[in-house]
Structure formats: C-alpha cells, structure tokens
Amino acid sequence: xxxxxxxxxxxxxxxxxxxxxxxxxxxxxxxxxxxxxxxxxxxxxxxxxxxxxxxxxxxxxxxxxxxxxxxxxxxxxxxxxxxxxxxxxxxxxxxxxxxxxxxxxxxxxxxxxxxxxxxxxxxxxxxxxxxxxxxxxxxxxxxxxxxxxxxxxxxxxxxxxxxxxxxxxxxxxxxxxxxxxxxxxxxxxxxxxxxxxxxxxxxxxxxxxxxxxxxxxxxxxxxxxxxxxxxxxxxxxxxxxxxxxxxxxxxxxxxxxxxxxxxxxxxxxxxxxxxxxxxxxxxxxxxxxxxxxxxxxxxxxxxxxxxxxxxxxxxxxxxxxxxxxxxxxxxxxxxxxxxxxxxxxxxxxxxxx
Amino acid sequence: xxxxxxxxxxxxxxxxxxxxxxxxxxxxxxxxxxxxxxxxxxxxxxxxxxxxxxxxxxxxxxxxxxxxxxxxxxxxxxxxxxxxxxxxxxxxxxxxxxxxxxxxxxxxxxxxxxxxxxxxxxxxxxxxxxxxxxxxxxxxxxxxxxxxxxxxxxxxxxxxxxxxxxxxxxxxxxxxxxxxxxxxxxxxxxxxxxxxxxxxxxxxxxxxxxxxxxxxxxxxxxxxxxxxxxxxxxxxxxxxxxxxxxxxxxxxxxxxxxxxxxxxxxxxxxxxxxxxxxxxxxxxxxxxxxxxxxxxxxxxxxxxxxxxxxxxxxxxxxxxxxxxxxxxxxxxxxxxxxxxxxxxxxxxxxxxxxxxxxxxxxxxxxxxxxxxxxxxxxxxxxxxxxxxxxxxxxxxxxxxxxxxxxxxxxxxxxxxxxxxxxxxxxxxxxxxxxxxxxxxxxxxxxxxxxxxxxxxxxxxxxxxxxxxxxxxxxxxxxxxx
Lengths: 353, 481
Description:
The complex is a heterodimer of chains A (353) and B (481).
Chain A: E1 4-5, H1 10-19, E2 23-26, E3 42-45, E4 52-56, E5 61-65, H2 70-79, E6 82-83, H3 97-103, H4 110-113, H5 116-119, E7 120-126, E8 132-136, H6 148-151, E9 161-168, E10 170-171, E11 175-182, H7 186-198, E12 205-207, E13 214-221, H8 226-234, E14 240-241, H9 244-255, E15 265-270, H10 276-285, E16 289-293, E17 298-303, E18 316-320, E19 326-327, H11 334-343
Parallel strand pairs in A: 1-3, 2-3
Antiparallel strand pairs in A: 4-5, 5-9, 6-10, 7-8, 7-9, 11-13, 11-14, 12-13, 15-17, 15-18, 16-17, 18-19
Chain B: H1 3-10, E1 18-19, H2 22-25, E2 36-37, E3 42-44, H3 49-62, E4 66-69, E5 86-89, E6 96-100, E7 105-108, H4 114-121, E8 126-127, H5 140-146, H6 153-156, E9 163-170, E10 175-179, H7 190-194, E11 202-210, E12 212-213, E13 217-225, H8 228-240, E14 247-252, H9 253-263, E15 273-281, H10 283-299, E16 304-307, H11 311-322, H12 324-328, E17 334-337, H13 347-361, E18 365-370, E19 378-382, H14 389-406, H15 425-428, H16 431-444, E20 463-464, H17 471-474
Parallel strand pairs in B: 3-5, 4-5
Antiparallel strand pairs in B: 1-3, 2-20, 6-7, 7-11, 8-12, 9-10, 9-11, 13-15, 13-16, 14-15, 14-18, 17-19, 18-19
C-alpha cells in the first residue's frame, strides 16, 4: 500500500472503505506482513478509532473500537480485577484489539479457558459492498444468526473491515505462581504438556521458551492455595518457583516476543503437541528459534530472513518477513470462494496470498 | 411420494432404510417443539458417511429439500420436516471414531449422543463440557447445528467453543474439512461459522471435539429465598465478588412446585425462588472459594442455604433442576419454552415484566434460568384445546422476545431461531445484516434445499396446531430446556 488514511470515526472509516476499489485495514502494524499488499491498495489505519465504548464489569463484557490498544484495555480491566484470559500477544508493542482478532492471535493463557475465538461475542464490520453490519451480540450467551464474529477471527481483514468488537472477560484470579520445571529433551516436554493439560491443577499456562531447558508453568487461583498445588508439581523433579517480579518479567518478555530478532521472519504455527519435537529439530536445522506455547498447541517460530516456512510442513501464518501469508494449508475448498464472494462481491479486499 | 425422487433415493438405500408410508413417517413429523407438525415425504436412514453424501448429492441433483435430524430434541423446530422434502435421520451414524486422552480430543459421528462422549472420556478423567438438559438423548450433530448450551456456558462456553474440527457435506454436495485436531488455527474460523448453522449449510459427518479434565472437586449450594429479587441480588453479589462459579441457576415458585411433584425434590418452605451455585476446580481452590461463597450467601438472607454434603446430594440438586421443565409439563397440557437472554443486571426487571405480561395474557408462566449468563427460560403454560389459547401463548412469547432485545440481549441463548423465532430475527438484525446472513446461506446452499423455512423470516408457514408433549417427553426420556 502506498496511500494510508486514518479515519477518526466509524462513519469516516465506512466512507474510506467505499472510496477506493481496493482497500485493506490494519491496526498498529505490530504484525507487518499482514498488511504488506500491492501499492494500489488503499491502507486504512484504525489507530484513530480507539475508544472503550461500553464496559459492564458486572456483565463480564466490554465493547471497544477496533483500534483500541490492548494495553489500554487490559489496564481498565485490571482496575476492576478482570482480564482477557487468553493473554493477547504484543500488547506492550501497541497491538490493537481489532488487529488481534483479524490475525487470530492468543497467548500462553489460552490453555485454561480458550483463545480469542472463545471470548469474542459480537462484531461490527464493513463488508466489501461498504455495508455497516453488526453480528453476534453484546451478552455473554447468544445463538442468533450465523457466528460471523468467530468466522472473522483469523480473517486478516480480507473478508471485512472490523470497526467494533464485544468481548467476554473473566474475573482475574487473586494470585499467580510460576514454576520452572526442567525437561531434558523435547519428548519430555510433550509428556509434561500432556500431563498438565489433563491434570487436576487447572494450570493457566505451560510454555517452553526458545532455547530453554525447562517448561514454565503458571498457576492462578485464590490467595494461599497455589503453594499447595505447586508443592505437588515440584515433588518429582528439580524444579523451582520464580520470584513474583521475575515471573512478571518472564511472561511479559514472552508476550512481547522479545526473543525473536527483528531481522528474522516470525510465524504462528497451529500445532499438535506431538509434532513439537520434529518442529524443534527442523527449525534448529534452519537456524531459527521456537517458542512452544499453550502446552504445545501453539508455536511461535522465528526463521532467518529468506527462509521458507513451508518446509516445516505445518500450517503457518507469517506475521513478519516476506514469505507467503499462509503455508502448509490444503487447497481452499470451493466454499471459500463462495463465501469470499458473499462478503466481498466486488473484490475490494486483497486475497489471502 | 413422487416416483422419481423415490427412485433416486432407493438407489442409495435398501428399502428398509427408506421410509415413506404414512404410519412410519408419523414419528418424524415434529421435534420437541410439538406445536409445529409436518410429515416429510420420506425418511432416509443412512448408516455411513458415504450414504449421507450420496443422499445430499441426490437431493441437490433433484432439488429435493432435506432436513437433517438427530434425536429430534430441538425446541425451536429446527428439525421440523419441510413440506415436500425428506428427513435424513442420522442416529445410526453413532460411532466414536477416535478418542485420544493425551491430546484430549474425541472424533465422533453426528448421531453420537452427547452424554456418550463424556461416558467414553470419563475413564481418562476427562469430560465433554456442553451439557444441554437433553444430554442423555440429544446428538452431537444436533448440538453442532444449533450451537447448544447448557448450565455451564458462562465459564466454559457453548458447543462452538468445543468443536475443533469438522468434516461435512455441504448442500452443494461438496465435502469439506474444517479445522482438525488442533486447538489453534490458521485463517478464518470455519468451525466457528459452521457451528450454529441450524442445518442450513449441510450435514456434519465427523466432528472433532475438545475434551476437558473433569473438575477434581465440587461445592454445590442450594439456597431458598422469600423473593426472586433477593435471589437476583445474591447472584449480583457473587458475580461482583470475583468468584467464577461453574453454574448459577434460579428456579421460581411455579417451577419449584413442579419439581417437588415430579421428582420429590425437597426445597426450603415458603420460597419464591431457589438459587443453585456450583464451584468447581482443584480441591485447594474450592476449599478457599467456598468460604467466600458461603459468607456471601449467608449475607444474602436466604430462608435456608443447603450445601451438598456428598456426591449423592449434589446429584439430587441437579436432578431437581434438570427435571424442572418436564415437571412443569405436568402442570399443564401444553407449554412453550423461550430462551431469550438479557444483561444479567436486568434479570430482576425482566422477570417482573414477564410476570406482568403473563398476568395480562391470562396464562401462567414458570421461570427456570441460567442466572450466571442471563439466559431466561420462561415456560408459558397453555391448553391447546381451548380455542385461542395457543395464539395468546405465542403472543406472550413474542412480547418476551421483544423485551429481551429491548434490554440489549438476544432472542435466543441456546435453542436457535429455527422455525419458531424466525419472525423475530428482524428485531435483532437490520435488513442489511439479514441480507448478509442470507448471502452466506446462499454460498453454502445456492438452491435453498438444506432445511429451508428456518431462521429467516417469511417463507412457507408450517402447520401450527397440536396438543400434548412429545412422546419421548411423556415417557420421561427427554426434557425441554
């Protein structure tokens, strides 16, 4: 994109969508590959659309404009002791709520209650015909109409321009505790992930950071109960408990993806835990790094510039770097073309290439 | 039945699995919304996914409407047959194809019963979370089509939050695979779009479900209150405290009376409302949270608060709750169940106004609801044999739906629009929005042969009449909720 406009109201944004034959919206640009498109596409920045429109702590819901930074939202939620349990990534870098939905990204906390798709309730978006549409709802339970809010998670702005979102939130547990459980090899990490995922402890996060020899486990719950649970998890090995300030910094760094060098390409991989050892080996051979998140259901992979993520043989989304947006996916079914046409009959939005 | 349609289908299925004689069709002419009945042209009973695909492709080739059906427990008329169309009964596709305890997933066919998934997962300490009250008979295919809920949605979400993958035959005959055994995904969320399609996109053939570890420990309390407002205030206090119970349910006086009569449930005397709250989790967390919950409940001035002292008492509390709907059926020859949602803080106001509407209509209305997520279940009692009463009941139901929308809620929390609420879709969505939904439907089903007449307003009106409960309900096998 060569030209970028920054509307400051939803009306202006709708006008911007209608004003050009080819448009793509983007947020703060923290996942730059998602908005790398041809010069003839008009860029619509949503950063001028930043506002928490409604927040009802007693309802566990809020509605915000798409360009609202995550860090602003989490700060307001924290005042009421609430949170988005899926730890949306890149908050510190300025990532927006709309960008998080469009990219379909969740962080370590998705392990306990699910990801961004599990907390989205309602969406307002502009389709390719320039129509202003609200689907889903503003209450925590709703089954009216097709679930467009969920469908647009991961749609990369290619099926509609998101202008407003309603989310479910949860009360924040009173305390957290992070354990470091050493693992001698990736196979053991997988065994540990599986045990944690089906155990009684309801762990909030279980991640293997790049080049680490330990799985970091975050417990969350009522004050005073976590040391009891931790004792059981630490009983059979040489693990230890992180000091609270160390733990806070540790998770913040992971969330910020501070480990990945800016020159490298960055990819999200949808993973099965058992695929993790082969992935770690393959990435190491390519000179890259892996952060296994959410008990091995999710991997963040950094590769040296110019690497082909397709060689990993897994479904991947490129967030930074020059590779194709998607790799490792089966050919699009016929229905994907039909739905694209239903939402964008004039091809106003770029494709998924 | 037209000879050419029958010929197409009989090339796919043997004669004993293609029903077309009126006596055989009678059992399929309605679902749990018994006020609507319409006999199908024929009922096809496939036993394999390949047969389902062949049937759908034959329907597509012959422009023959079809309605997929599981156990027929839809409360919105979702599996009501379409005039001139066939029913594809999926009950024999009831195999659990794979259950992987380490990855915590199950791959099932659409005719598998909801509770059978949990039964298969239980030996591994796992369970399937969505628990509609009909869970002992409703099928996963139906749950997926209608995005079924249950009593634990605030914490665990609805069916769509637990579907990781789908193999489906679309109404065009195209066979697609969405998602898989992965919890994360790349690209648009097709499983999210397909779940809750109300039978308008096609038929799910294989469904990959996420399983969750069974909570180690429960603390279940039943508390009786003199007034509904007090019960509502207790809910507000619990929510404001930062506790996240697995379930928060309320039953009103009429529902309590019914449950007492039906399953001999025992409730504190002289109560206008009973609140059920359940905490769950690791034993250490539940031990800490129960102290806070018990203090909150004590401060809410109940007539009596009874914690379940053992698993049997816990089950008894839930039995009374889950039987409430069929129990209410004993108070009246007929009833309609609504499932609108209101913001939780407006529950008290909503119930007062529903009470007023019900008095004005001259019809009794019992309330059993998921207080934690604002999902109401007003049961409107009427007698279909009295001229005009069904019409009054429907008018009352309509007022309640509009009230939910006016309060910023939804016309359906978990039953779906179906045939029952299709005229109320425009109360929630603009004409542009409904047009968008129609375009999506048309992308999946350009001929409009998959469950036509459902969800969207207009369309052909089915026969509306009928009297009495569903045969399975009468037998106590299913309940409406």
